[in-house]
Write a structure and sequence with these properties.
alpha+beta; Phosphorylase Kinase, domain 1; Aminoglycoside 3'-phosphotransferase, Chain: A, domain 2; 2 domains; 16 helices; binds adenosine-5'-diphosphate; binds 5-S-methyl-5-thio-alpha-D-ribofuranose; binds magnesium ion
Length: 408
């Protein structure tokens, strides 16, 4: 079928032409509801009238940025990369990825499992829900997806094939270059300008050239370092969760980029949530749980990544017999420490971009009280600055926690 933008009616007509979906719903009558709350795409919950539990998600990319409108064109080919990434990640670790029922690159559409018993993690965290299995789940997801799509695990030719498959996601990479690394740190029309104009903290940030130079180093890593297949936008709005299960959705920003970028995105979003609780709820117990979770995520990520590497005797990078065991272990540990360092740097950029840039996060921009919101912004900028200025000197996860705790 040639591409056309679907709506609540035509999505049903379209889906009923697909055998697997017709079989899924059987003789039931189906209805559709648009439930998208993201910045880019349209998301339909398609469910049975007779059995509301029987449902699927149909997500379609339109040739513009949803949150702005048709005046901001954005190639719908982003869905091609989301489809490819869902497939790739599902093959590595199916437990953490919604099962795809149907996809069409031509229609820029994917139909997947409806996660009816899960919520967007950001909402849960804002409401102070503790997800005790999260650090275990997400550290497995991140270490496995990053390790097994990198030159540490893949043959040289398979790695280059993988890069070819994702190299075309140019528009979303450019969006990140602009919206994460550049525009939020300078005067720009896309910023939250009501809050920027005559705000001394914004002026201070825009003139902090020491900080901005370090951001450039990180942007350069983002633009040039092709370590592994990334999710590319791994914030807590891209995670659906309950007490027992964790799913990672929405990998449309996927590309082969630096190891630390996904880990950094997650770290930034957990710290933003911590800031929300420092300023708004002042819930000490929850704050402590968040800090412990941050530590566990980072430590478990490092340990699991190392373990995958130890289990693999031969790799495109370090062929069998090249190093002795002792040197090899020291080399691997240093390598993983550098991933964590970069993650901290990227986390700093990602935290700071949420303060004045387009697409703020509910934890900070959603604070109604202007004074409290200003406090949260200041705290976010303070931690972000520490992260960006010191990321290349970090040695342990405890040092990261110290930066977070000492910022008040
Ligand atoms: P966008 O690409 O526009 O950011 P998302 O993939 O983040 O879109 O989806 C938007 C929203 O749709 C999510 O925040 C979530 O509420 C809902 N959603 C997406 N995928 C699923 C799913 N598989 N099951 C249930 N809800 C989903
Ligand atoms: C205008 S798009 C803004 C942001 O939404 C996505 O989730 C990415 O984080 C992007 O930078
Ligand atoms: Mg999204």
């Amino acid at each position: 079928m040639n591409y056309k933008v679907l709506d609540v009616n035509s999505v049903i007509e379209y889906l009923l032409t697909i055998k697997a979906i017709e079989t899924f719903f059987g003789s039931d009558t189906i209805k559709a509801q648009e439930i998208g709350d993201g910045n880019l795409n349209y998301v339909y919950k398609v469910s049975s009238e007779q059995d509301p539990e029987k449902a699927l998600i149909a997500k379609q990319a339109v040739p513009y940025l949803r949150c702005v409108g048709e005046e901001f064109p954005l190639s719908r080919e982003r869905m091609t990369f989301e489809i490819r990434a869902l497939d790739k990640f599902y093959k590595i670790f199916p437990n953490f990825i919604p099962k795809v029922q149907h996809s069409s690159e031509e229609m820029s559409l994917v139909v997947m499992e409806y996660l009816g018993n899960h919520i967007i993690m950001r909402e849960g965290l804002i409401n102070g829900v503790k997800y005790t299995k999260f650090s275990e789940h997400i550290s497995t997801y991140m270490s496995a997806t990053l390790f097994y799509t990198s030159s540490l695990a893949l043959s040289s030719s398979n790695k280059r094939e993988l890069m070819d498959k994702f190299n075309g996601n140019t528009e979303l990479c450019k969006l990140t270059e602009d919206l994460v690394f550049s525009f939020p740190f300078m005067e720009h029309e896309t910023n939250d300008n009501e809050n920027v104009t005559s705000n001394p903290n914004a002026k201070k940030l825009f003139e902090d050239f020491e900080f901005k130079e370090k951001v450039l180093d990180l942007k350069y890593k983002f633009m040039t370092q092709s370590d592994a297949l990334l999710h590319g936008d791994l914030h807590t709005g891209s995670i659906m969760i309950n007490k027992d299960e964790t799913y990672v959705i929405d990998p449309e920003f996927a590309f082969v980029g630096p190891f630390g970028f996904d880990v950094g995105a997650l770290l930034a979003n957990l710290v933003n949530n911590y800031i929300h609780h420092c300023v708004v709820t002042k819930d000490e117990e929850f704050k402590e749980w968040l800090l412990q979770t941050i530590k566990e995520v980072l430590d478990k990520f490092s340990e699991k990544f190392l373990q995958y590497w130890r289990e693999l005797k031969d790799s495109a990078l370090c062929v069998s017999g090249y190093l002795d065991d002792r040197t090899s272990e020291v080399y691997k540990k240093r390598f993983v420490k550098n991933i964590i360092r970069d993650s901290v740097g990227f986390a700093g950029c990602k935290m700071a971009r949420r303060v004045y840039g387009v697409a703020g996060v509910a934890e900070i921009r959603g604070i109604q009280d202007v004074t409290l919101r200003g406090e949260a912004e200041e705290l976010a900028l303070k931690i972000a600055r520490e992260f960006v200025m010191n990321y290349d000197k970090i040695n342990t996860s405890d040092e990261i926690l110290e930066i977070i705790k000492n910022a008040r």
